[in-house]
Design a protein that fits this description.
The structure holds two protein chains of two kinds.
Chain A lengths: L1 H14 L1 H9 L1 H4 L7 H9 L2 H6 L4 H4 L9
Helix pairs in contact in A: 1-2
Chain B lengths: L2 E8 L5 H7 L2 H23 L4 E7 L13 E4 L3 E3 L8 H4 L7 E3 L2 H13 L5 E3 L6 H11 L7 E6 L9 H17 L3 E7 L18 H12 L3 H5 L3 H7 L4 H11 L4 E8 L4 E7 L3
Helix pairs in contact in B: 1-2, 2-5, 4-6, 6-10
Classes of the chains: A mainly alpha, B alpha/beta.
Chain lengths: ~70, ~280
């Protein structure tokens, strides 16, 4: 369940520039009503891509989010 | 009687700047060598005058989301668009100058889909999925300034577990070959992606490949050892970063019992690059 939610957030960050902007301004607020564990929420807030990947975030999403990805 | 007139597989990030930035000058040189080989392969392919070009490739979570990931999907309809995405990553931005729309071979795509369902292949169908670099980078390199033959895009889920097995992908390729044989068309078929990279789809392992594994599987392709290829497990494919080999397995099934000829093989470290052509009986 949480793994699905992690990837839903990542996919939306990739595809929805307005969502991405809001996330960059205040990630905690944007993720407020998303069903994430505290660990997942923390990894998003710190934008720790390795940790998000370890928690089930799809590599190809983490590599392709405009402005947030790095190879 | 229809026939497969050309069959090949090749890596699909044919973008020198990407390798320059992520690997360095030797990465750029290696992919430039590969691009020259793929261009030459394209002359052979178009010289065979195919009525259609089946392209077996994967989705990098550009098209399908976690709401639904088809194991295999046939693109149907009359035309297909190039993927356009704001701030796309570098090797999809490289598609910007390409045609925005490509004709599809609607009849062949429909037959692969419909006869597949009649034969226990529960392919998904898409009327709208656009094409990213996995399709258009090889097609544009093969065809250059010449128009591409009408396409039949065919997606394999290579990245979201559970993926189809190597054996099932091979069987799907046999199905495609049967449909082609029963039809009236001369058809080219390519698979794209690979070789090994991004082992375990782990961020921590980016930058490594498994050259020994790649040498072994390419050897099997050269010798037509399809049993060994079909026996590859999901664990082996995942651990070695050979996820896109599943695309190749469809092609290998379609070209079976043909054997491959290696046109290019390069060990880069971050990814191993290859281009192979199959003999056709």
């Amino acid at each position: 369940m949480s793994r699905y939610e992690v990837n839903v957030v990542l996919y939306r960050l990739k595809k929805d520039s307005a969502y991405r902007t809001r996330f960059a301004e205040d990630a905690c607020s944007v993720l407020g009503d998303v069903d994430l564990t505290e660990e997942e929420r923390d990894a998003f807030a710190r934008w720790d891509v390795r940790r998000l990947n370890e928690l089930g975030g799809a590599l190809h999403l983490l590599l392709s989010i405009p402005g947030l990805s790095r190879h | 009687m229809g026939q497969i007139v050309y069959a090949a597989a090749m890596s699909h990030v044919l973008y020198p700047d990407y390798y320059d930035q992520n690997v360095g000058a030797h990465g750029r040189r290696m992919v430039e060598e590969l691009i020259d080989v793929v261009r030459d392969m394209g002359r052979t392919m178009l010289g065979a005058r195919p009525d259609a070009l089946v392209v077996i490739a994967d989705d990098h979570l550009n098209v399908f989301s976690f709401d639904a990931i088809p194991a295999m999907c046939v693109r149907i309809g009359r035309s297909v668009d190039r993927m356009v995405q704001e701030d796309a990553i570098e090797f999809d931005r490289a598609l910007d100058g390409l045609p925005a729309r490509y004709p599809l071979h609607e009849d062949l795509a429909n037959r692969i889909l419909e006869q597949g369902l009649e034969s226990s292949f529960d392919f998904a169908a898409s009327w709208a999925a656009p094409l990213d670099h996995a399709f258009l980078s090889p097609v544009s390199t093969l065809c250059g300034d010449r128009p591409a033959p009408p396409l039949v895009p065919f997606w394999v889920n290579c990245f979201v577990s559970p993926m189809p097995t190597a054996r099932r992908c091979f069987a799907a390729g046999r199905h495609i070959a049967r449909v082609i044989a029963e039809g009236p068309w001369n058809v080219a078929i390519i698979a794209t992606g690979g070789l090994s990279h991004f082992p375990e789809l782990s961020f921590a392992r980016i930058g490594t490949s498994d050259a020994a594994f790649d040498r072994r599987i390419v050897g099997w392709m050269e010798h037509g050892e399809t049993d060994a290829l079909c026996a590859l497990t999901a664990k082996e494919i995942h651990e070695t970063g050979s996820h896109e080999l599943l695309n190749w397995m469809v092609l290998i099934g379609a070209a079976s019992p043909g054997k491959a000829r290696v046109r290019f093989f390069g060990e880069m470290g971050r990814v191993d690059l290859a281009a192979l052509e199959w003999s056709l009986s």
